[in-house]
User: Which sequence fits this backbone?
């Protein structure tokens, strides 16, 4: 399934990402959906994916009604063949990818005491939260190197900077993502490619990590999308390598 809609026109001042091609994983809900909408509103042409075809279709329809130019593709980012198909379809239909947002992530089996966790839960979280970033980025990087530029933005977490009881697998995935992001940045900056990490605290989405929280003490998906847009729209001479997002109010 693919869905494409037309983009509104606007000046480069109003649309700082005009005509740039973005690829967002996990874009059919929550933080990913907000990121897709924000990038499209700033002029980017956005390809996004998710595993739930119905949710993907509904999200695409919502974005289409706003005039965004998008491409929606069902993809499991833990599967190499599906990743290759996603990148190939995006480049064929939209053009070379210059903004890559690694947002796909799960909590689920990542929460709970380590002695209660299984190997299957470890693999599921690591494959989605960490390995997929490696796999999808590796598929996009050659094109960015050829074009001598691009932004890779990894949605990490403050759980990649802190530990807490019951978070062993999830924290491990995000600490690993922090290390991967830093090393990718050093490997790729000579080609004009910036690799950044966005580290939000708790965000009011379906995910909600360790359980429901007071909405007044958590971030919104739009807060994270705003940070992504800031990184993507920064000047060519600057490099925002890491952003920490916290709610103003404490629990």
Assistant:
């Amino acid at each position: 399934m693919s869905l494409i809609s037309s983009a509104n026109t606007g000046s480069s001042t109003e649309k700082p990402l005009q005509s740039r091609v973005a690829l967002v994983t996990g874009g059919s809900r929550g933080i990913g959906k907000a990121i897709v909408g924000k990038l499209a509103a700033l002029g980017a042409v956005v390809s996004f994916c998710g595993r739930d075809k119905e949710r993907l279709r509904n999200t695409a329809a919502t974005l289409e009604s706003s005039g965004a130019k998008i491409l929606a593709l069902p993809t499991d980012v833990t599967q190499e063949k599906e990743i290759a198909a996603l990148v190939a379809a995006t480049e064929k239909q939209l053009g070379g990818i210059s903004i890559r947002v690694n947002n796909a992530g799960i909590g689920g089996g990542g929460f709970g005491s380590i002695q209660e966790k299984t190997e299957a839960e470890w693999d599921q979280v690591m494959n989605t939260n960490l390995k997929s970033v490696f796999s999808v980025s590796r598929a996009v990087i050659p094109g960015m190197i050829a074009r001598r530029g691009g932004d890779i933005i990894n949605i990490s977490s403050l759980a990649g900077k802190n530990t807490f009881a019951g978070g062993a697998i999830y924290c491990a995935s995000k600490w690993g993502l922090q290390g991967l992001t830093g090393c990718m940045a050093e490997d790729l900056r000579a080609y004009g490619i910036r690799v950044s990490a966005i580290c939000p605290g708790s965000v009011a989405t379906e995910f909600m990590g360790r359980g429901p929280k007071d909405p007044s003490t958590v971030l919104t998906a739009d807060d994270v999308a705003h940070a992504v847009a800031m990184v993507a729209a920064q000047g060519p001479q600057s490099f925002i390598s890491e952003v920490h997002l916290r709610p103003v109010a404490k629990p």
